[in-house]
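note to self: dont lose this again. the chain is below, predicted strucutre after it. 388 aa total, dont forget to put it in the shared folder this time
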Amino acid sequence: MENWTIRLAAAVLALLTAACAGPSLPGRAHGRPSPSPSASAAARPGSIDAFVPQAVSFVESHRGLRFKQPVKVNHLSDAEFSQRIVSLQRRDRADTDRQAKLYRALGLVGRDVDVEKAEEELLGGNVVGYYDPKTKELVVRGDTATVSVKHVVVHELTHALQDQWFGLDANQKDMTDDQALAYISLVEGDAVRIERAYVASLSSGERDQLARADAGSGGTPSGVPRVLVELLSFPYVAGPPFTSALLQARGQPGLDGAFKDRPAGTSQVLQPELFLNGDRPQTVSEPAADGAAFDRGVLGEVQTGVLLESAVASGGLTRDQEQVAAHAWAGDRYVAWSSGDSYCLRVRFAARTPSGAAALGSALQKLTGTNPHAQVDAGPQPVFTSCG
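---
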């Protein structure tokens, strides 16, 4: 999950800007005065380079931290930028292949779905820019600072500021998928908060222009599995309420502290009181595999919810039942293996209460109605097995 910095401009932008919150709480920026970006000295009016100093000032004043050094801006043509995105995705091909096998095992994608191609379709033509914590540069498509580009620059410069203070790339090592998704939600929630504040500062005419640009950007390409859209958009949707809860409860020190004492899973993002109270996911024993394991880990609350939504789509569960079952999640552990030309996954769940375990087990049982290769062993810790 290393490509968290890629901006899903079309897939989730409407969600982020349609109902912009008011400006985030500005605070006194801590740290040394930020250096002026060298690229702005002879910048063309209307260019991204000319806008960067304004964006830097906005990010610093609303995030309460100062840049420690200038951020390099790398401008690429459409063709170069699209190729860079594809290269980033292909760099993580092994992880994409692993995740595709898990999705197949859970019945979330069919055998005929090329997950790597679907990700390229979802991201390739829609990304405006991204910050790369490996190269420490902001990579953008073109050099014209349109209103549709400016708020993305603000968002990505927030990532650069986070990286300079907290070391984003280093913090993603040795995480389960669920821990990584929770951490990404913190990172993106913080950046979306600053981005929304910037959009709220625009004139009504500029906001109308941005809304028209969003409306014409197109929707999700046909054939892209729902699981990809759900998981890729999750940090942008769930992250902002999480960071707002931290700010309300503990102020900026609490938000900054979360980058060091990270959320332990997506359950803490979806239910911020769990993070604030130090209520961490339970450790669950790994179930036995029926073959040589190719992966093991934790699904987490959000992926459990995505799994249960399959039963909602088929009519086996109501939305309320799905949410009750997903929120009952208190921990899990899965193991995955190959079986002939199929992939299988077995996951043991822990629930917060006996009634929660019953609700979760009952909800999982509904999945067997549409998946003949799935089975559930109910009990205090329900075990779900699925092949596909």
